[in-house]
Structures are given as C-alpha cells and as structure tokens.
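Quick one: sequence plus S-adenosylmethionine SMILES, need structure tokens.
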Amino acid sequence: MTRDLPEGWLSAADVKELSRLAKGRTVLELGAYKGRSTVVLSEHAKYVISVDRHRGVNYPEDTFPDYMTAVRELANVAIVVSDFQSFVPYVTGVDLVFIDGDHDYDSVLRDINLAISISAQMVALHDWDFAEVREAAETVFRRDPSSIGGSVASFTNMGNELPRR
Ligand SMILES: C[S@@+](CC[C@H](N)C(=O)[O-])C[C@H]1O[C@@H](n2cnc3c(N)ncnc32)[C@H](O)[C@@H]1O
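Reply:
Sure thing.
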C-alpha cells in the first residue's frame, strides 16, 4: 500500500484497485475528504481534478486544512472546492470519474449521470457494498460492472450510455 496515506475510507484492496484503474489516466475525483484517494490517484494518474465542497450535510467537519496538507505539493492535482454538480459542466477531457461523494441513491444517480454528460470513458464507484450505490448504477448501466476490486466497481466503454432518471 502507498505509505503515509491520509485518514479516510479506502482499504488496502481499494487502494490497489484504484491504482490500477488510474494508471496513466486523467481522473475527475468526487469526494476527497482528507485526501486519501487523491494521493493514491495522484501517484498513478496522469492528472487529477479533485473536487470536494469540504464541508457538507453528511460531513460537517471542515476537511480542507488536512486535505491541503496532504495534497498541496502534488504537481498533478488540481484542487477544486465546489459542489460536484456545479463544477462538472466546465470539465472536458477526462478518462475516468471516481465517485465517492454522498452514497444515497439520488446522489449517486445524479453523479453517474454527470460523468456520462462529459463523455468520460470509465466510471469507478467506491462503496459497491452499499445497496443504494449498486441500485443507482443498475438504473444507468443495466449490466454488471466491468471489474470489481475491494469495494471499487468500475464501468468501462461508456460511449453509448444515456443519462437515466
Ligand atoms: C466518503 S468521503 C470521501 C472519502 C475519500 N475518497 C477518501 O478516500 O477518504 C465523501 C466526501 O465527498 C464530499 N461530497 C459529497 N457530496 C459532494 C458533492 N455533491 N460535491 C462536492 N463534494 C461532495 C464530502 O464533502 C466528503 O468529503
């Protein structure tokens, strides 16, 4: 596992899978918290656009100071403090969207649809063991994930997907 990772929710198996998926890709990350997934993505991706509002309904703590300590020296990370849904329309050229924001059905569905709207080739979802994450993915993709490692599930070849409600 990557050494000295910030506090967060990625297990060793999640880190391994995310590292594999990110390799050489341009990644849009939803949900950085204190930077654990951001650091992992940065080590393997070509470039990472890391989006978090850093203080939300489900996460009242201000995570920005710890996050900045973890990521400010990473040359291939763009730091975006914003709601994901407000920011995504300004994004182009992303290969992989890593979704680890709010985990209720409506939020996950919205976030997958946003990833589709910018023509990302691949979506990876953390917490695949959460029923609402799986249900939202089923609504959009109507197929099994292309791969699952740890609790990270990914869907590839997204060119023909349509946003679903
Ligand atoms: C589970 S934590 C992310 C954990 C992180 N990936 C890690 O490896 O530890 C979820 C984060 O998503 C952020 N978040 C949730 N919904 C969001 C949204 N719509 N826009 C921006 N940030 C959001 C929260 O502020 C929180 O920091």
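The chain has one domain: 12-142. Strands lie at 26-30, 47-52, 77-81, 96-99, 122-126, 147-149, 152-155.
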